[in-house]
Amino acid sequence: MKIIKLETFTNKYVGFVKVTTNTNDFGWGQMSTYNADISALIFHRQVAPWSLGLDLIEEKPNFSDHLQKILEKEHKFPGSYLLRALSGLDTALWDLYGRFHETPVASLIGGSPQKIRAYGSSMRRDITPKDEAERLCKLRDSKGFSAFKFRVGSECGRDLDEWEGRSEEIVKLVSSELGNDVEKLVDGNSCFSPKRAIELGKYLEDQGISHFEEPCPYWEHNQTKEVKEALLLDVAGGEQDCDMSTWKSTIEKQIVNIVQPDIMYMGGLSRTMDVARMAYNESLPCTPHAANLSLVTICTMHFLTAIPNAGKYLELSIEDETYYPWQKNLFLGSPFEVKDGMVEVKDIPGWGVDIDPKWFDNCDYNITELN
Which of 176, 264, 345, 366 is the most exposed place for a label (fewest CB within 10 A)? Predict the structure, then answer.
């Protein structure tokens, strides 16, 4: 089975990849969201040429070393964009193998179809504490969520709140309204200095918050560790990190209590599983970043069924196309349906989803193929 054709279908926000073999087997994957049109250029320039003609063993997935070889061939270009493009190849190949063997990706990697607990993840800072509390309570009652994450501070805010006093206000109100039976998480998105993060963290603990994500600038590992060691709640991080040496250092130095790799930022499922294994060896749980309703969340669902150190829940964005219009018509059916606070990895080959044909009406198309 040999790769003969690699196609991309992209707009500014989303980029899907289709891989086809000489046996007419195929799989669908996705590059990381946002600036996906740029990632597609990199895919066809720096990923696809190394992959045409690649022999795939039919019995089992055997392409992880090929992914590493691409990074070695492109060693002058380390960093996020190459890995965002690489994720398209990785996830398409996993889907191909799932379809070929008529089994979900979860089963290929040691997991199985099952239900997974999800936490409702708010992406908004432009919302008032009152409105946030109201919508989270409605979702608790209608969907059965038993955990939520909401935002504090401002993104890379240098200690500035979205508006003055918002963090303390939203923490107090949301915690009170959701009640003690709901787990509560917050995300600082690299806002705070250690001093301010510790100050706020003590308040979070008093209000029953159990998880403080990315409290300090994510690249300042010593700052994050200082906050972790000063607080009793869990400090989480790692969503931006995509370099293996960075992850090795983060895990060995115990910078965080919970690791949060993003499958699409990492370059795909294969490399993310390597991070999870490293974390497992240091007794750290893995709760991946999955901040939108694209293939990243589908892949993460399969991933969480298979790793022994899976965190307590899946991150599931509560924002629909009214906030993220680009999410509209991505997939057929309802792959993110929530019942009793759970989502389901179904017993369907590959990733178990099909792209809505209407989505292809307004995308750019490119192809790299064997002559």
Answer: 176
Burial class (CB in 10 A: 0-12, 13-18, 19+), 334: exposed
For the segment 134-193, what is each residue's pLDDT rounded down to a tens digit?
999 999 999 999 999 999 999 999 999 999 999 999 999 999 999 999 999 999 999 999
Instruction: Walk me through the domains of the chain, giving residue ranges and CATH numbers.
Output: 3-102+358-369 (3.30.390.10), 107-345 (3.20.20.120)
Report the C-alpha gap between 65 and 80 in whole angstroms: 19
If we measure between CA atoms, which residue out of 149, 97, 147, 88 comes closest to residue 291?
149
Cross-strand pairs, 314: 118
H/E stretch holding 229 reads helix 221-230
Q: Which two tokens stand for residue 23?
A: 């046996």
Which residue from 232, 225, 120, 238 is spatially nearest to 182, judged by alpha carbons?
Answer: 120
Q: What is the CA radius of gyration of the chain?
A: 20
Q: What is the DSSP string of 165-226?
A: THHHHHHHHHHHHH-TTSEEEEE-TT---HHHHHHHHHHHHHTTEEEEE--S-TT-HHHHHH
**Is this structure's pTM higher than 0.90?**
yes
Other CB atoms within 10 Å distance of the CB of residue 234: 18
Q: Where are the beta strands (DSSP E) in the chain?
A: 3-10, 15-21, 26-31, 114-121, 147-151, 183-187, 209-213, 234-237, 258-259, 314-317, 342-345, 364-369
Closest CA to 89 of 106, 107, 66, 109: 66
How many C-alpha atoms does 288 have within 13 Å on its Cβ side? Answer: 29
